[in-house]
């Protein structure tokens, strides 16, 4: 209970220090935007993971996959 009260006090002080609710729009220190290199990284990450899984499956290192078994 004491921890919850301390956390609530800290949260209230932080909100008060940031003038919570005073401004209609929120300000940010830095706006994050995705660019082409970000999308390329995500696509290459997933393609590499799929390639690794398929390679391990073809080599028989994954064992029987339940998605590919016939009922």
Question: Which terms would index this structure?
Answer:
71 residues; mainly alpha
Structural description of this entry:
By secondary structure, the chain is mostly helical. It has a domain at 35-65. Helix content is 55%, strand content 0%. The protein has two helices and no strands. The protein has helices at 2-17, 36-58. The longest helix is centred in the middle third of the chain and has 23 residues, at 36-58. It starts with a helix and ends in a 13-residue tail after the last helix.
**What's the Cα radius of gyration?**
25 Å
The portion of residues assigned to helices is 40-55%
Number of helices: 2
Structural class: mainly alpha
How is the biggest beta sheet arranged? none
Total DSSP E strands:
0
Distance between the termini: 53 Å
| Shape assignment | elongated
Q: What fraction of residues sit in β-strands?
A: under 5%
Mean pLDDT: 84
Sequence stretches where pLDDT stays below 50 over 5 or more residues: none
Question: What order do the helices and strands follow?
Answer: HH
Short description:
The protein is 55% helix and 0% strand. It is mainly α.
Describe how the helices and strands are arranged.
Layout: H1 2-17, H2 36-58
């Amino acid at each position: 209970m004491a921890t919850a009260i301390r956390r609530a006090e800290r949260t209230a002080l932080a909100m008060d220090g940031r003038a919570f609710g005073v401004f209609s729009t929120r300000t940010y220190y830095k706006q994050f935007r995705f660019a082409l290199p970000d999308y390329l990284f995500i696509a290459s990450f997933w393609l590499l993971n799929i390639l690794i899984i398929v390679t391990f499956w073809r080599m028989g290192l994954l064992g029987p996959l339940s998605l590919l078994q016939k009922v």
